[in-house]
Amino acid sequence: MIKKLPKIELHCHLDGSVRLDTIIDIAKKENIKLPSEDINELSSLVKVPSNCTSLVEYLKRFDLPNKIMQTKESLRRISFELLEDAQRENVKYLEIRFAPMLHLQRELTISEVIESVICGMKEAQEKYDIKSNLILGCMRTMSEEDAILVINEGKKFLNKGVVAVDLCGPELEGFSSNFKNAMDLARSYGYKVTIHAGEAASENNVLDAINLLGAKRIGHGVRIKDKKEVYKLVKEKNIVLEMCPTSNVQTKAIDAYENHPFYPFYKDDIKVTISTDNRTVSDIDLSSEIDTMFNKFDLKRDDYKKIYLNSVDATFADDKTKNWLRSLI
């Protein structure tokens, strides 16, 4: 039943969602040495292990895919294939996020990197009944100057494929203050802002992401359950949480599905959405993620419709796209 329903995904990383056979194929074509060309061995290197202990360990699984995402053609192909995979499970709208600074190892410019991903997205949208937009990630391990560089280079693509900016990577306490100027600049240009926060560090990062950086959406945000002040702020400001339960369990942000705050948040009218985070690394798709949460918490069709419509409102899409998405449910 769930596979047939129209779906929206707001939090999906491009480099965490690369097909394994594509990694092997691109490596052969571009003469890139892999630890193994056996798809089963490769799977164990790219997919997160069951005994993963933290977000930092989880993020190591991106090293290998990023090796083969350094040319225009590989970036175009991988973004096309992500949308192709998503439309097979009736995802109608997908916001893809990635960090352009991670794709400069073979002398592409930031602009060329962004353009290549948009090219693949457009190609998929022409072929399939799916729409998408791009969120530019700025790595928290890099400098604010690097973030400003990405924001400036991405400006010419605003509303031509690019809609928003994000901060991603390992989460340290109090990171927001290091990127205030960059996010102020992004908002002045017209970027929407979504920030990874309250995942591997405290709920105070969510507070800062909203108050210092102007975030309208939060990636994960599970820690807001730990502090009334932050929880109240998220609820009162209608901040949308891009929740990725399987990823949270894998990174040990949450110890078990049953203890995930998704359901209590939903019942208390916090705006929650469901996403995969990383399709390949977490070894899931959106249908399986929704199915897991609905089975764990005995949710019904009316619940699905409410979450779907919350997701429509939360997209960074234009009004025409939002109206189309509403018409599908």
From TrEMBL:
Q: A Gene Ontology CC term for this entry? A: cytosol
Span of domain Adenosine deaminase: 6-329
Gene Ontology molecular function terms on file: 2'-deoxyadenosine deaminase activity; adenosine deaminase activity; zinc ion binding
Q: Which positions does UniProt annotate for substrate binding?
A: H13, D15, G169
Which residues take part in binding Zn(2+)?
H11, H13, H196, D277
Pfam families assigned to the protein according to its UniProt record, in alphabetical order: A_deaminase
Instruction: Tell me its family.
Output: Belongs to the metallo-dependent hydrolases superfamily. Adenosine and AMP deaminases family. Adenosine deaminase subfamily.
Q: What is this protein called?
A: Adenosine deaminase
The species is Romboutsia maritimum
